[in-house]
């Protein structure tokens, strides 16, 4: 039985899509980071060529280096990462940097808490003013 091997390298749009998915981001997340629509991200992911400036912006949103994005290959990630239980993943060719997540739930919780706290303080002020009247 013959196996089929796909030797065709990924074009840049497909690389963007693969890195986005590996980073756990949606097209909507990338769209927000770039200030464009989800449909525009879909079009980018289908593109074979992308301007260098735009590519740099995309790499920043994905939390990877420009060179890492350009040279991305699935095989490198699979052979570099150690998936055994209890072990850590080593640095891959994506060259990830520290990045903040676009939808960081802890920041949202803090925002919500601060807004609730503000409302409660306003209630206390109203009650204190009524008591003094």
From TrEMBL:
A molecular-function term among this protein's GO annotations: DNA binding
Annotated protein name in UniProt: Helix-turn-helix transcriptional regulator
Organism: Mucilaginibacter mali
Top-level taxon: Bacteria
Domain HTH cro/C1-type: 16-69
InterPro entries per the UniProt record, alphabetical: Cro/C1-type_HTH (IPR001387), Lambda_DNA-bd_dom_sf (IPR010982)
Stored SUPFAM superfamilies: lambda repressor-like DNA-binding domains (SSF47413)
Alphabetical UniProt keywords: DNA-binding
């Amino acid at each position: 039985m013959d196996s089929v091997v796909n030797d065709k390298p990924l074009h840049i749009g497909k690389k963007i899509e693969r890195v986005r998915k590996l980073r756990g981001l949606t097209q909507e997340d990338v769209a927000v980071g770039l200030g464009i629509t989800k449909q525009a991200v879909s079009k980018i992911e289908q593109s074979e060529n992308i301007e260098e400036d735009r590519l740099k912006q995309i790499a920043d949103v994905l939390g990877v280096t420009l060179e890492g994005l350009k040279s991305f290959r699935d095989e490198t990630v699979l052979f570099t990462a150690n998936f055994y239980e209890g072990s850590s993943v080593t640095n891959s060719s994506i060259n990830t940097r520290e990045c903040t997540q676009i939808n960081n739930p802890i920041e949202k919780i803090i925002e919500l808490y601060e807004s609730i706290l503000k409302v409660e303080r306003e209630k206390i002020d109203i009650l204190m003013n009524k008591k003094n009247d």
